[in-house]
Every structure is written in C-alpha cells, then in structure tokens.
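Mods, move this if it's the wrong board.
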Amino acid sequence: MRAFRALLKTECKLSLRGMDMFIFAICMPVVVVIILGAVFGNKLAFDGAAYTFLEQSFGAK
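Not the wrong board. Structure tokens:
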C-alpha cells in the first residue's frame, strides 16, 4: 500500500505540472458536456422516447 500511495502522489504531481493534461483531461470533458447540454438539453432521443439525448449518451437517469 505504501508503494501505491507513493506512486499515486508522484503521478499526481507530474499530472499537475503538465498543463496540457489539466486542459484536455479535466476542462475539455466538462466543456463538452456543458455544450451538449445547452444544445440538446431536453430534446428526446427520438420521437416517443422516454429519455433524452443526454440520458442516452451518458447513461444518466
């Protein structure tokens, strides 16, 4: 467990040093979900569906 904790700590430090990881791994997915939510918000997946496009795409129910 100590080795895992040491590796996790090291990898977290390395990840935060690389700003490209922060942008593409954290910010980009959040922005994409916000844009999809704004565009497809409450639209049904198809005519007569009981769920929306976002619920179908992301498994949110």
